[in-house]
């Protein structure tokens, strides 16, 4: 976005990372970068965020904060204890940030809100039940909001990628399907006017079309779930032997 001439506000949990990235963006683009430190697993951060944004005209909001309940696939009862962190981070953050920014976009009758979901949120995905359900909320929330506000000149779009190499995905090796964050962002911005839900890049659009042809019972079969669990176990053993 900075390369397109926009000043940036970055919100994240780690101050050192914010400062480093802000400096890199400013030096590379010449645009101004404001940073706000906030931990979106906490429900107490929004008052400070609103105060920090006061007086700024936000034209584009990108809600891309998110976390996995279980980093590796597992059955629901075998996963970590349930707490509010995932709900606060994956659901509450999107609704509250959208509410805050949409209030100032509506009078101007223009603005763009991009909500990051996941390909796993477009169908009920076993072994990632909590993550899939939280991302499904973002899909429904975003598409319903777009129906409410599209006549007011505001674009609200949900982006549902599959493989992107990030810390959350343990830096999976980039490939035809697994994109680097830089590749995905660059390509996804070209799809902003392509409807209320996109998968973000051509490879993921094709993958989504293929997966939609497969009956849901296949994904939900116990045999496939066991195959996935065993495959990840072998993958992790290989990775630990060859870091």
Beta strands, count: 8
Q: Give, in spatial order, the strands making up the sheet with the most strands.
A: 3-4-5-8
Mean pLDDT across all amino acids: 88
Which word captures the global form? globular
- Rg, nearest Å: 19 Å
CATH topology of the largest domain: Rossmann fold
Contiguous low-pLDDT stretches (5 residues minimum) are none
Based on the structure given, which CATH architecture of the largest domain is correct? 3-Layer(aba) Sandwich
Q: Give the topology string: H per helix, E per strand.
A: EHEHEHEHEEEHEHHH
Instruction: Count up the domains.
Output: 2
**Main pleated sheet:** 4 strands, parallel
Q: Helicity, in percent?
A: 40-55%
In DSSP terms (H or I, runs of 4 or more residues), the helix count works out at 8
Terminal Cα span: 34 Å
> What percent of residues are in strands?
5-15%
According to CATH, the homologous superfamily of the largest domain is NAD(P)-binding Rossmann-like Domain
CATH class of the largest domain: Alpha Beta
Helix/sheet category: alpha/beta
Summarize the structure.
This protein has 243 residues and is an alpha/beta fold. The protein has helices at 15-29, 46-53, 85-108, 129-149, 181-188, 202-212, 216-220, 222-241, and strands at residues 8-12, 33-37, 60-63, 111-116, 154-159, 164-165, 179-180, 197-198.
List the helices and strands and how they pair.
Layout: E1 8-12, H1 15-29, E2 33-37, H2 46-53, E3 60-63, H3 85-108, E4 111-116, H4 129-149, E5 154-159, E6 164-165, E7 179-180, H5 181-188, E8 197-198, H6 202-212, H7 216-220, H8 222-241
Parallel strand pairs: 1-2, 3-4, 4-5, 5-8, 6-7
């Amino acid at each position: 976005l900075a390369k397109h001439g926009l000043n940036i506000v970055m919100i994240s949990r780690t101050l050192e990372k914010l400062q480093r990235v802000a400096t890199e963006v400013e030096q590379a683009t010449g645009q101004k970068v404001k940073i706000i430190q906030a931990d979106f697993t906490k429900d107490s951060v929004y008052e400070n965020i609103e105060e920090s944004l006061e007086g700024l005209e936000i034209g584009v909001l990108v809600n891309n904060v998110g976390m996995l309940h279980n980093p590796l696939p597992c059955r629901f009862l075998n996963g970590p204890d349930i707490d509010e962190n995932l709900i606060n981070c994956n659901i509450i953050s999107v609704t509250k940030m959208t509410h805050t920014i949409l209030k100032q976009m509506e009078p101007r009758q223009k603005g763009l809100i991009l909500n990051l979901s996941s390909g796993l949120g477009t169908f009920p995905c076993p072994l990632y039940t909590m993550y899939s359900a939280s991302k499904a909320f973002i899909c429904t929330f975003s598409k319903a909001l777009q129906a409410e506000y599209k006549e007011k000149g505001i674009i609200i779009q949900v982006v549902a990628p599959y493989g992107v190499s990030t810390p959350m995905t343990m830096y999976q090796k980039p490939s035809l399907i697994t994109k680097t964050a830089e590749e995905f962002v660059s390509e996804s911005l070209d799809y902003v006017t392509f409807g209320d839900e996109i998968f973000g890049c051509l490879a993921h659009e094709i993958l989504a079309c293929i997966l939609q042809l497969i009956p849901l019972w296949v994904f939900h079969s116990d045999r496939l779930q066991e195959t996935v669990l065993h495959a990840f176990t072998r993958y992790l053993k290989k990775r630990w032997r060859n870091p």
